[in-house]
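Example record used in the benchmark description.
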Amino acid sequence: KREVIDLESKRKSRPATTDSYKSKYELILKRNFKDVYKIHEELGRGAFGIVYRVTHIATGLEYAAKFIDIQNHDEELCVKREIQMMKDMHHPRLLRLHDAFQDGSEIAIVFDLLR
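Model output (structure tokens):
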């Protein structure tokens, strides 16, 4: 089953710092990535994952989604910390984080698509 870290509701309802790591990620909704986004061609591949062009089904907007295969618990914590930091950063020269999904050992992070 796939889960999404609901970044928009966390932005509105959570302070930037919390008492425990677990509380930062307790707002996880169960949704299937493919119910929300359509996956298209591969855009790139690196040491930490594969990036695809994706389309948000409801809006038709295009994004880039990075799929990361998590090898162990420490990697999972590292990726989730990165997601937490990215959701709080807003600057015109930074990619904006739109969504983050987890399905077992795979995490998908949805960003702006640059052309």
